[in-house]
Amino acid sequence: MDSGRPMGFNTPEIANQCFYMVAQYLRHWHTNRFCIPLKCLKKTLPNLKKTHPWYAEIYSQVLQDVVKRVKVSFDRFIKGDSNGKRSGRPRFKQRSRYRTFLYPQAKEGCLNGNLINLPMFGKVKLILHRPIPDGFKVKTVSITKKADGYYATLSLQDETVPTIKPDFNKASFGKNHSPQKCRSELITGIDVGLKEFLTTAQNEVVAIPRYYRKAQKRLRVIQKRVSRRKKGSNRRLKAVKSLGKQHKKVADKRKDFHYKTANNLLKKYDVIAHEDLNVKGLARTNKAKSIHDAGWSNFLSILQTKAENAGLLTVAVSAYNTSQNCSACGVKVPKELSERWHSCACGCELDRDHNAAINIKNRAEGHPVLKAKSLLGDSRIVLEARAVCS
Ligand SMILES: [Zn+2]
Fold first, then answer.
1. For 370-380, what is each residue's pLDDT tens digit?
2. Distance between Cα 330 and ligand 1 center (Å)
3. Contact 59, 14 (CB under 8 A)
């Protein structure tokens, strides 16, 4: 979004609203031990506008969304989320931490060229990073303040996205005489490495790009600058600002790299197996991986959404001993973290990460979901063959 134009996006008012709601909610919870229903909370809004006239300047739906957010955080605190995991007691947000607000229902045609029409703000110029594809409807607009300006995130809806690509076995059947071989070529496993970003079961290596490492180095330099400068000083404030910008740069670069890598993988493979990040404890003994974890889980979620949208599949498999077991004979070959080579008595000689990637791929092929899918694919092939014969 164009940061040059001074906009009335004064989130403090909304933050205040949030403060007020949390306070009200907490008081109610402590005295009565039950939650105020969302409806009742929303009903307080019109009254609030009378007593605090400046709230009238905030679009009503934005305020309602604030109420909803407060409600969600309380539900998470009291009842837990869909997995039953409870989060901590809702806290007051510092003004500077309140960075996003949401228009839950974007009007049709709110986007016109490079202008977006936001209720209460009017037409605001923005830089579109990519054109909105035909047939998509803008559903929600959220405005976020970041280190280098304001960003608008549009969520789009398209009904034409397929659920699961129905014919990924059939397609491979036509290309090659041996369907078994071909299918196994459309499946890959990926493993995170110590030095490389990932290695596939086909021994393709994706390195962490140099520009990303460089940006990270610069981040450390600025971080040091901040900690050297006196707290509360202007010079420190300046350094903090540039640190924010650098963080943003690193995050952008990483995201870009993740998208490109995911696209390249999905262009080549229909099914991509990776280790299950949810299995913690026993399987998570590899230190290098826990270092990579943050970026890795981001990448996996991008890969998953991209795959789903294209009707392709990602499979999470247990990571237990994937780097230790031999991918050819299955015998455990213990090795230290520093050992980069897998060498087995059966004659299997491989790079450590390559070996792990093959193990991950093999586990995916024995995965119940995939087995069901391949059965489905086979029956379809049989049916087709019959149709040709008769
Ligand atoms: Zn072996």
1. 655 555 444 44
2. 6
3. no
